[in-house]
Amino acid sequence: MSASLEGPGSSPIAAHGTGQGGGHGTGRGSGSGQGDDKTQEALRAAHLYYMQDLTMDAIARELHVSRSSVSRLLSFARATGLVEIQIKSPLDQISRVQNDLRDRYGVAPHIVPVPDHASEVDRLERVALSAARILGSFFDSNMTMGVAWGSTMSAVSRHLVSKTTHNAQIVQLNGAANTRTTGIVYASEILQRFGNAYGAFVQHFPVPAFFDDPATKEAFWRERSTRRVLEIQGRMDVALFGIGSPYADVPSHVYTTGYLDDTDFQSLRDASVVGDVATIFLRADGSHDGIPLNARATGPDFATLRQVARRVCVSSGISKLDAVRGALAAGLITDLVIDEGTARALVE
After folding, report:
1. Stretch 188-203: mean pLDDT, rounded?
2. What is the pTM of this model?
3. 338 Cβ contact partners less than 8 Å away, ≥ 6 residues apart
């Protein structure tokens, strides 16, 4: 029941149904098959409201409930992902920037409107919320999604919308241990939120973020237990990651919590590093060769990452601009979820 409609006094909107005042939404079954009464009521209310244009009063009469109950059912439908609201206009500034990003970098951009006066923390939360809502449409049953850890992924994990999947799994992209902590609790909490949201099996990667010696990593990579996780990563359908940067206004976890010492930071400066993707460091032109720390890092090499069909990058803040440019230049991104201000800077 897909339709492209013109809301009264508004720009064209593409959606799967119409709501009051020109809003648009898609009714979507949960697929749980468990006969959840509230879910069924919410689905019915959403169908009547978005697909049949009934008012809340009319729905209340049909369902024999109060108008406030209808409002709560519709809110439940939106919050749980049964209904997705999508507004598109080819005329506004965001759409122009989206087109420019698509043409210049060959990515599918998802631009999040954020007021210029918003704090960097608020900016991150808004982008993370949008990414969490979008992600459900990328991940389904019988799929494997690789997830990096970090400040951005932690924020995304807190806003995930539940979706029932079967035979799906989440795999950790990079190790999290350092000399101060095993990193297990931090990384596990992030990954487990993804597993819980999608009913997916979680595969951890219990290795350091960085080995002390490249030879140690090479030996470890030959171990069967490690090979098993690497092989799962090699079968990923979706890779989800943020962009780390030593210059970010919201500190990136890997640069602030004991993973790197003074010698490491000097090495990054000497190599003109602008950021990292899953603890693999890169320059503004997208190159990552000749950066000593990469030989000790446990994130997926860029050749492996580029083989993943859908590579979703979530980033916020102008302070990460060079790092985002580097990741785009390296061809690591197919879908970019980013705040409006940084998106504009990418094409200006």
Report:
1. 96
2. 0.76
3. 109, 110, 111, 112, 127, 313, 314, 315, 316, 324, 346
